[in-house]
Specification:
Part of the ABC transporter complex PotABCD involved in spermidine/putrescine import. Responsible for energy coupling to the transport system. The chain is an alpha+beta fold. 24% of the residues lie in helices and 34% in strands. It has eight helices and 22 strands. It starts with a strand and ends with a strand.
């Protein structure tokens, strides 16, 4: 699936707003691809263009090498799972799953076999005769997935389908969605603003902001090698230190030089990559502890450098839960080898 130079503007003339600003990306066949970004970044608009619910102002949408830009939704081999699930309350689970097949004119035998296959895939065989109103939120979502997968689309679009679930069920469904995508081999395009969902399930992620794609890459690449401040800040927690680039690295506020990859005047380092050392350790940054917050397995230590820059270190909590650091304590800061990266603003 390819989006090529796509622009989508809403409104006319000087009042028009570009929801998508010359967006291009290629989604590989059979991958779990996530569009990630804050509200208003254009991710759902791009999903709707792929589905055919919206038409681009300019540019092309290609599926399996075929230009489908002007085709209506029913002439694209694409199905969508919506945030609200949109199930038919007057139909049983089996009837919901078989609805699209029935509309396609499939035989009763073929529809029945396919419905059974889909219910087995989502582990709802025992619920086939129930009304959807009798199901939990997680079960309803599985029905919506089975219904969307039943016609064997080339691309399955998922518009924040986990947002209505509680935290525990959402985590369980993250694993289930990845399992379904792997077992079916269908291309999944998933929209979310949740970084953890994106990192957990995706083969690749497109991070979006203000109608543009900022970076595309695998979860590890996006997390460890962000290209700019927006991506670094949006994907997980991170620290920023203004520095002066030098050959092969960066000069820190205390004058010492450390090795750093990338380019730019901003050093980014994840909280788990900061090392807390004695205040008099050679080459370390001098810092003062401003707060300590216990998070169970981890403890977050909030610090302030001599120039007022705020940083966060994440350290393993001791087995007895006793605090290792105190507010007001003076410490030195070091960096895990290879963890520091220079990025642009």
């Amino acid at each position: 699936m390819i989006a090529r130079d796509v622009i989508k503007a809403f409104g006319q003339g000087e009042h028009s707003v570009r929801a998508l600003d010359n967006v291009s990306c290629e989604i590989r066949q059979g991958e779990f691809f996530t569009l990630l970004g804050p509200s208003g970044c254009g991710k759902t608009t791009l999903l709707r263009l792929i589905a055919g619910f919206e038409m681009p102002s300019s540019g092309q949408i290609l599926i399996d090498g075929t230009d489908v830009t002007g085709r209506p939704p029913n002439r694209r081999e694409v199905n969508t799972v919506f945030q609200s699930y949109a199930l038919f309350p007057h139909l049983t689970v089996a009837e919901n799953v078989g609805f699209a097949l029935k509309m396609q004119g499939k035989s009763k035998a073929e529809t029945g076999a396919r419905v059974s296959e889909m219910l087995a895939l989502v582990k709802l065989e025992a619920m086939a005769g129930r009304r959807t109103s009798q199901l939990s939120g997680g079960q309803q979502q599985r029905v919506a997935l089975a219904r969307a997968l039943a016609p064997r689309p080339k691309v399955l679009l998922l518009d924040e389908p986990l947002s209505a679930l509680d935290l525990k069920l959402r985590k369980e469904m993250q694993v289930e969605l990845k399992r379904l995508q792997t077992e079916t081999g269908i291309t999944f395009v998933f929209v979310t603003h949740d970084q953890e969902e994106a990192l957990t399930m995706s083969d690749r992620i497109a991070v979006m902001s203000a109608g543009k794609i900022q970076q595309v890459g695998g979860p590890r690449e996006i997390y460890t090698a962000p290209v700019n401040r927006f991506v670094a800040d949006f994907i997980g927690e991170t620290n920023f230190i203004p520095v002066r680039p030098v050959e092969g690295g960066a000069r820190l506020p205390n004058g010492s030089v450390i090795a750093a990859q990338g380019s730019g005047t901003l050093l980014t380092i994840r909280p788990e990559q900061l090392r807390l050392v004695p205040a008099d350790s050679p080459g370390s940054l001098k810092a003062r502890v401003t707060n300590v917050v216990y998070f169970g397995t981890d403890t977050h230590v909030y610090l302030e450098l001599e120039d007022g820059t705020g940083l966060t270190a994440r350290v393993p909590s001791p087995a007895d839960g006793a605090p290792m650091h105190q507010t007001g304590q003076r410490l030195g800061l070091g960096f895990a080898e290879g963890a520091a990266r220079l990025i642009r603003e």
